[in-house]
Every structure is written in C-alpha cells, then in structure tokens.
Amino acid sequence: MQKQYAQSTPAAGGVNMNYQYAQAQPVPPSYEQATHFQVPTAANVVIIQQQAPPAVGPDPCYVCCPHCQVRSLTRIEYSPSVRTHCMAALLCIVGLWCFACLPYCATSCMNANHFCGHCNKFVGVYSSD
After folding, report:
1. At 60, which helix (H) or strand (E)?
2. How confident is the model at residue 91 (pLDDT cuts 50, 70, 90)?
C-alpha cells in the first residue's frame, strides 16, 4: 500500500498554509534591553596604580620603598654590565690581558642594584652605560 502525500501550492502571498504549527521563535531583545544594562552595584573593583621607579644613583640614597612604604637608606650590590665586559675585552685586544680583571673590580664600570634597607626588596638600578 502506498502512502500519498498531499502537496499544496503556496497561497497568494507565497506562504505554504499546510504548516499549522509553526515553531515558536525566541523574540530578540529590544534596542533598550540590548544597549542599556545595569552594572552590579556590589562588584569588586580593583584599581592598579603603577609607580615610577625611584631615581637612584651610584651611591646609597634615601628612597621610599614601593614595597613596604618605608623611607630608608638603600643597600647596594654591584653587578657587571655590558660596559664591564666591553672594557675587559678591549684590554685583552690591546694586549693587556693581565689587566682584564680590573673592570670587574671598578664600581664605575658596573651597575648599582639598589635594595630597600628595611625589607631587602629590589628598588632600582643605576646603570653607568
């Protein structure tokens, strides 16, 4: 036995009238709902402020530590810089290789790393380059 399906022709407006039960489409939000929304009043707001690093020199100086907020005299540790290595290489090239260690002993050829005298955290660096 063969089933026959009735085919209908679209009505004058071009809409097929056999579909009596159309699926309900969700209604999109109105312009007001889409553009105006309320921010929750109890939201946690985090404000990040960046501080400029304190100006430090080749000698210990008094600074306000950005970590502990205490004004104290900095502690200095010297570390070799590009200038230190270049001076040592220049001495070797010129033939004074026995004096190549001198730039590593001179603080004027090294970076001065400043640390807080209170909390011992890094504060800034003075580069002689």
Report:
1. none
2. very high
Residues in the chain: 129
From residue 124, give the alpha-carbon distance in Å to each of 57, 109, 118, 120: 9, 17, 15, 12
CB within 8 Å of 104: residues ≥ 6 apart? 80, 84, 88, 110
Q: What is the CA radius of gyration of the chain?
A: 38
Locate tokens 């004058």: which residue?
12
Tell me which of 7-11, 79-83, 84-88, 102-106 is least confident: 7-11
Block residue for tokens 């001198």: 102
Measure the CA–CA gap between 8 and 75, rounded to whole angstroms: 93
What are the residue boundaries of the structural domains of the chain, listed by start? 62-127
Q: What are the phi and psi torsion angles at 63 (to 5°)?
A: -135, 155
Q: What is the mean pLDDT of residues 14-28?
A: 62
Query: In degrees rounded to 5, what are phi and psi of residue 87?
Result: -65, -40
User: 62 or 49, which is more confident?
Assistant: 62
